[in-house]
Amino acid sequence: ARELAKSQAYSLKLGVRELDSEAARELAKFQGNSLTLGVKELDSETARELAMFCGTRLELESLTELSSEAAQALSAYKGYYLFLGGLKELDASTANGLAMFDGIALHLEGIKNLSNKTAHELSYFSKAYLFLGGIRELDVDTANKLGMCRAGSLHLESVRELDAQSAKGLSRYAGNLHLESVRELDTQTAKELAQSKATNLILCGVKELDILTARELSAFKNNWLDLKGATLDHDARKELKASKVNHLILKNSSVTELL
């Protein structure tokens, strides 16, 4: 590990499956930008040593388990991006530790489901990006908790269906809300989303909007509304253009429409 850490490469990628704290201490001295490790488990002491890595990217995508103690130790990492996409489950205490991460982006794309308590703890993550791209279904209680998220951008790009009550829960979120995989919106769901505090609302996966749904959605008043995937007739397009949103992206528009 000591010799590998002396590499002058931009990034260091190792398939090693096991790592003790001594080896982690040496690898953390690597002066490149990105450190990728294939470890599947990480105890708190090893996590504490890895957190001393000074590069901008720490990738632990093969990690399948993480204790709350190890999560808290790992959250001390001062880089920008922490990748933990191999985690399939996350309990509340581990989420509490990860929410302390002081970097820019926390990647948790492997998580398929969040309990209410876990969502509540993750909502305390207050940096730029929280990636939860593995979640496909969102119940009302979880949506309510995520609506309190402090991250600048909340990525739920794999959620495929969204009912009105879940939309209402998410509407309290005040950052950039990514819902790229939502394909359909009924009028009530559109009405709730239109009341969203989100700075930017990304709904580019919606396929069609009728005039009534477009009318409800046109009440969104914030910065950016992305509907570039939606087929719109003349009347639905007219309703959306009446919106007070700053930037409206519609299908077949060559440029962002400024309203």
What's the short version?
By secondary structure, this protein is α/β, with parallel strands linked by helices.
Tell me about this structure.
- It is a single chain.
- α2 (44-50) links the parallel β2 and β3 (57-59).
- Helices cover 28% and strands 15% of the residues.
- The protein is an alpha/beta fold and 259 residues long.
- The protein contains ten helices and twelve strands.
- The protein has a twelve-stranded mixed β-sheet with strand order 1-2-3-4-5-6-7-8-9-10-11-12, covered by helices on one side.
Spell out the key features of this protein:
259 residues; alpha/beta; twelve-stranded mixed sheet; 10 helices; 28% helix; disordered C terminus
Q: Which strand order do you get reading across the main beta sheet?
A: 1-2-3-4-5-6-7-8-9-10-11-12
Structural class: alpha/beta
What is the helix/strand order? EHEHEHEHEHEHEHEHEHEHEE
Please state the CA-atom Rg, rounded to the nearest Å: 21 Å
Tell me the quaternary state: single chain
> How would you sum up the major sheet?
12 strands, mixed
Give the mean pLDDT: 94
The end-to-end span amounts to 57 Å
Query: How many helical stretches?
Result: 10
Estimate the strand proportion.
Answer: 15-25%
Coarse shape: elongated
Low-confidence stretches: 254-259
Helicity, as a percent range: 25-40%
Number of strands: 12
